[in-house]
Structures are given as structure tokens and as C-alpha cells.
Amino acid sequence: MDIDHSVVDQRVATGTLPRANDVAQLVQDSYNHALPHREGEVASYIPELANANPESLAVVAAQVDGVVHAVGDAATEFSIQSISKAFVYALACHALGHGVVRDAVGVNNTGLPFNSVMAIELNDGHPMNSMVNAGAIATTAMIPGQTEAVRWDHIRSGLSDFAGRELHIDDEVYRSESATNQHNQALGRLLQSYGKLQRDPLESVDVYTRQCSLALTASDLAVMGSTLANGGVNPVTKDQVVSAEVCRDVLAIMATTGMYQRSGEWLFEIGLPAKSGVAGGIVAVAPGKGGIATFSPRLDHAGNSVRGIHATSYLSKALALNLFASQPYVD
Ligand code: GLN
């Protein structure tokens, strides 16, 4: 990640955010900092995603006290894509407990692209973690419910609770991905062949494709992240969506695997758990402080939004969010 560390000083985490006025100004500054970056490509392997406006940019910070700061195209809807993986993982942990999903899916990084077949083959058929496609399909297949419709409703309403409003599928994206997701179907079949999928592969991939097609805004996404930062309580609706323990588990997985094969670089440069999606969203979470969401469709080679990386990096430093930054104790 080519980040210019000279643009802002790293401040040391204090346990609380700066005053709301200062946060608002810094969100604006991060937007201004990210805007000139025009590198990267809009995803096109799902044909409908190629229609996104490459110039869109939104930066939103949602504090755990419910105050939300939004700059840019924060009301523009885009599909959640892989970011859904973190929240469906949360729903699976909530329903099944800490150990069940960990043992069935795993918590280690593959070091390989998000849709890798090799990662399954190199690991004796194990899906490895819930943030790559294989592990996400396996996690989605673990969501309880008698029928596909009930399981889908569990996921849609659960993600809506995280966002604090009803989320719906973007039909164009769903149709486009359903017509072109043979690779994910193959991942489902491969997991099935290794005995690692609890349900029918095509049905599991269909539910996974639906969850990826949910439309939301950067403001929704920031509130979802802030819920993970706030012990599972949505800071706007005050609903307890999942437990604090589930949030801790989800954030650990996001930190190690949320940015695909660049997760190590992201943690090294930015120091926050985060999850990205190929439509251009990124959510980063500062535990006890809030969620930061960015939306900009141009992606790096791993599938992470280029402007999103720059804006989040800026805010991590300026808002003193990096989990690893300290300074010597003074008597
Ligand atoms: N739905 C997309 C896929 O399965 C999600 C990928 C992503 O956002 N990285 O390919």
C-alpha cells in the first residue's frame, strides 16, 4: 500500500474520540485528501458493477454516541458485497456460539485472493476463514432455519438491524452476479466434495449471492461498523444486535483477514480491523469509538477501494485510532 505518511501526524489513542466538531472537520479533511487519487479499476467481473460512477466518494464516521459525520456521496447506494461476510459471520456466531464457526470454518488468513480455489486445495479442503468466498459460503450455510427463505430472511433482517433500517437487494446486481457466479458455484462444489458444506452448494451460493447484493449507503455501513465498535448495540436505534463477545470475535477476524491478501499491509499501515467489498465499500472499526465507512469504486489489485484506503489511513492517524500506537508512560 503506497501511503504518504507525511500528510498527517500519528496521534496516540486516548480511549475516546476528539470533540464532535473536530471529528467532523477531520472527516472532511480525509475526503479532501482521498479525492485526488484516481488509481485503480472499477470491478467488472460482475457486469453490473462496471456501471458504477468511478468518481463517487463518500467518507462517513459514526460515533458510538450516535453522532454521524458524513461527507460526499454518503446517500449513494451500492452493493455491500464481501462486507456482508463480516456481519453474516457475526449472525452465525450469535446463533451458534464462539467455537462452532471457528472450528468449522477457521480464523487464519489464506494469503491468497478472495475467490481462491488453491487456498482450499492447499489446506485439505478447509475453507480457512469467513472473509474469503469459500469460508463465507460455508458460514452462510451454517445460518439456522428450516428453508432457504427463512435463512435468507434471518440474514437480511440481521444485517438490517446492524444498519438500523430495512435493507433490500439490488435486483440488477443480484441478477448480474447470479448469471456469472460459476466460480463461486465451483467453490461450493469443492467444499461439498471435502464434506465441509452443511447444505446444498447451489442453494448456499444463492443465499451468499443475495447477501452480497444488498444495497446500502456509506452512512448505513458506518452505523453497522459502529455497532461492532459499541459492544453490539446499534448506536442510533439502541438495539442490541449481537453480544459484545461476538463483536470481539468478528473484529479479530476482520483484523487478520478482512482486506484479503493485503490484510497484513492494512494492519501495518492503518492498525484497525476492516472489511472491504468489490463494489468499493470499506468499513473500519475503532473499538469503543466508532465505525468509519468509505465508498469509492476504483479498486487496487486485491479488490480494496483505493480512495477508501487513503481516507481511512488519514482518519486512523488524525483521530488517534491505530490500535498499536502508544507513547512512553510519564510519571
Ligand atoms: N459477491 C462477490 C464475489 O463473490 C464478493 C467479492 C468481494 O466483494 N470481494 O465475488
**Tally of contiguous helical segments:** 13
Query: Percent range for helical residues?
Result: 40-55%
Distinct ligands, ions and cofactors found in the model = glutamine
User: Which segments are poorly predicted (pLDDT under 50) over 5 or more consecutive residues?
Assistant: none
Assembly level = single chain
Q: What's the number of structural domains?
A: 2
Q: How many DSSP E strands?
A: 10
CATH architecture field of the largest domain? 3-Layer(aba) Sandwich
**Average pLDDT value?**
95
Radius of gyration, in Å, reads: 18 Å
In CATH, the homologous superfamily of the largest domain goes by the name DD-peptidase/beta-lactamase superfamily
- The structure class reads alpha+beta
Order of helices and strands: HEEEEHHHHHEHHHEHHHEEEEH
Calculate the terminal CA-CA distance, rounded to whole Å. Answer: 38 Å
Beta-strand residue percentage: 5-15%
Biggest sheet overview = 5 strands, antiparallel
Instruction: Look up the CATH topology of the largest domain.
Output: Beta-lactamase
